[in-house]
Amino acid sequence: MLIVILTLVVDTIATLLGGVLLLRFWMQAVRVRPPSSVAQFTFQLSDWLVRPLRRVVPGVGGYDWASLIGAFLIVLLASSVLFISRAPVEVVLFKSLQRFLQWILYGFMALLIIEAIFSWVNPHAPLAPFVRALNEPLLRPIRKVVPLVGSLDLSLLVALILLQIAQVLVGMIIVLR
Hints:
By secondary structure, the protein is an all-alpha fold. 77% of the residues lie in helices and 0% in strands.
């Protein structure tokens, strides 16, 4: 019972911090300048880890690798709770990799759902252009293949389905190991 509660607390904190680190990496990768409130939240929550990592892992190719590696370190640390249940190192490493890939896929899904909500509720909301810019690299190739149906853009739906398929494949790869 206590291990379940500990796992819940650790997973919640790790998911929040890992999500912020992945968002920080993605914002920099797609060259999107965040609104000041998002930037302040993201940088204050992650600078304690990213700044020291940048001394070891510099940005190469215009990417903030320290943020991405930081997110993986957080998931690895959170998965180390499995050691309490006497899981072998290989299991912890594979579980960490699976969870890291799932975080990335769930993050993309969340961004797509947020964009859909903005388009229904308030397409002119202050955060809407920011979210749209974060989703553009995912949706651009799909929009080339999936035409508009009337004035309806189905690329969001197609992207969500593709991400769910990727989620299933990630789960299967780790299980087949």
